[in-house]
Design brief:
single chain, 441 residues, alpha/beta, Rossmann fold, 3 domains, five-stranded parallel β-sheet, 17 helices, binds nicotinamide-adenine-dinucleotide, binds L-histidinol, binds zinc ion, Ald_DH/histidinol_DH, zinc ion binding, NAD binding
């Protein structure tokens, strides 16, 4: 990989250097997704079943796993993997538990009390990808905060395996959290089913995939585009955030180990050909060593082809100093940022935007992907500029509540009346004056 010298690039070249490979969703993807969603809205479960047969080669009249299928899948997961699932879930619970909205109350003027009350989102749909690789860790990342929030109805959708079931480790991760409503549906058809509902049996029965209030989870271009489309519908569901192809930016100083830096970059490059990884450093020799390591280590990986495709769109950037490296990162707004420097805490103060930050040489991003406790469903494509990743609060809604005594209405009512009349909304004003003036019926 060629090293780009940041100071020698003009504004256009800098924009090009930080361009994402997968940012442009073609008209074709948009139209494909729109067709699938329209069919699911019109025909419900039948369209979901047809799309799954066409796109995933599996026909299941009822996509929900039976109790027998769930138990059989869990039994196939080795004890060591089940123990790792439990250990990861424990850390996720520990970190996420305090991350919800805090209810609070203020007596704004005597007798006028304003509150924030917190409720779980009632029906949530969790998408667990399984196209390029099944991601049981994503089931944990979404399921743990959903359960902690107390969401009463939780459905999981994940693409089918070749035998028509779901990946056993995905199923075992759901079961670890007590989730047993698992539908083997992937792609845009899964998002459509969760957005519009795809019930089985008689109308009014609760079988099948329920219409969800909010849809969560990462996925490929079709999944991400489908979430964007359903979120734009009037009365449509909410979505968590744009969580598309994985990205990582490493800031490395001259003391960083090029072997470890390259290993971190490759860990995200292996997600898909549209993943992107960048290494930014103030040391040209370090960047050359990282380039050589990327090439050497890529050849040893089972997903070498995917990794090399991702490296095509990846970058090595030489900056004047580490402050400039952070400025480059702030402009890119990476999903993951690793600070492989001698004083990472000091540099953290300058970091303005990133989905998740990893400090020092001994904190590989893989820890966060699986088991440190932070969430791996994170903003991509620059969305870190305005949002963080999934948290417990993502599964809650905050509701305001207020109550006024007659005296408090006497105190604040005239202000409301003045503002209502300034807006020309007399009915608003009279809702107050009728009370203040006593009997004006
Ligand atoms: N940002 C994050 O937080 C985060 C976390 C985990 C994974 N990811 C990303 O999620 C993505 C997972 O993608 P994936 O493909 O492996 O799995 P996926 O489950 O998202 O997609 C598979 C589904 O796509 C549908 N599909 C495939 N080709 C299609 C076509 N031509 N037309 C219509 N539908 C089609 C199929 O129905 C299939 O079931 C990766 O890019 C990974 O980097 C992101
Ligand atoms: N790195 C991905 C988020 O971009 C999450 C993941 C799941 N499994 C491995 N990694
Ligand atoms: Zn990963």
């Amino acid at each position: 990989m060629r090293v780009l010298r940041w100071n020698e690039l003009d504004a256009t070249a800098r924009t090009e250097a930080l361009r994402r490979p997968a940012q442009v969703v073609g008209q074709e993807v948009r139209a494909t997704v729109a067709d699938i969603l329209e069919a699911v809205e019109r025909e419900g479960l039948a369209a979901v079943v047809d799309a799954t047969e066409r796109l995933d080669g599996i026909r299941r009249e009822d996509p929900l796993l039976t109790e027998g299928e769930i138990d059989a899948a869990v039994a196939r997961v080795p004890a060591e993997v089940r123990a790792a699932i439990t250990a990861a879930a424990d850390n996720l619970r520990a970190f996420h538990a305090p991350g919800g909205y805090t209810p609070y109350l203020r007596e704004v003027v005597p007798g006028l009390v304003c509150e924030r009350a917190v409720r779980p989102v009632r029906t949530v749909g969790l998408y667990v990808p399984a196209g390029s690789a099944p991601l049981p860790s994503t089931a944990l990342m979404l399921g743990v905060p959903a359960v902690l929030a107390g969401c009463p109805e939780i459905v999981v959708c994940t693409p089918p395996t070749a035998d028509g079931g779901a990946d056993p480790t995905v199923v075992a991760s759901c079961v670890e959290l007590g989730l047993r409503r698992i539908a083997v549906v992937g792609g845009a058809q899964a998002v459509g089913a969760m957005a519009f509902g795809a019930p089985t049996g008689q109308e009014g029965q609760s079988g099948g995939i329920p219409r969800c209030d909010k849809i969560f989870g990462p996925g490929n271009t079709f999944v991400t585009e489908a979430k964007r489309q359903v979120a734009g519908l009037q009365g449509g569901p909410g979505i968590d955030l744009p969580a598309g192809p994985s990205e990582q930016l490493v800031i490395a100083d001259s003391g960083a180990d090029p072997v470890w830096v390259a290993a971190d970059l490759l860990s995200q490059a292996e997600h898909g050909p549209d993943s992107q990884v960048l290494c930014v450093s103030d040391d040209g020799k370090l960047l050359d060593a990282v380039a050589a390591e990327l090439d050497r280590q890529a050849a040893e990986l089972p997903r070498e082809e995917t990794v090399r495709a991702a490296l095509e769109a990846s970058r090595l950037v030489l900056t004047r100093d580490l402050q400039e490296a952070v400025a480059v990162s702030n402009e890119y707004a990476p999903e993951h940022l690793i600070l492989a420097v001698r004083a990472p805490r000091a540099l953290l103060d300058d970091v303005e935007v990133a989905g998740s930050v990893f400090l020092g040489d001994h904190t590989p991003e893989s820890l966060g992907d699986y088991c440190s406790g932070t969430n791996h469903v994170l903003p991509t494509s620059g969305a870190a500029r305005y949002t963080g990743g999934v948290t417990l609060a993502s599964f809650q809604l905050s509701m305001t509540v207020q109550s006024a005594t007659p005296a408090a209405l006497g105190e604040m009512g005239p202000t409301a009346v003045t503002l209502a009349r300034a807006e020309g909304l007399e009915a608003h004003a009279r809702a107050v004056t009728r009370r203040l003036e006593g009997d004006a019926r």
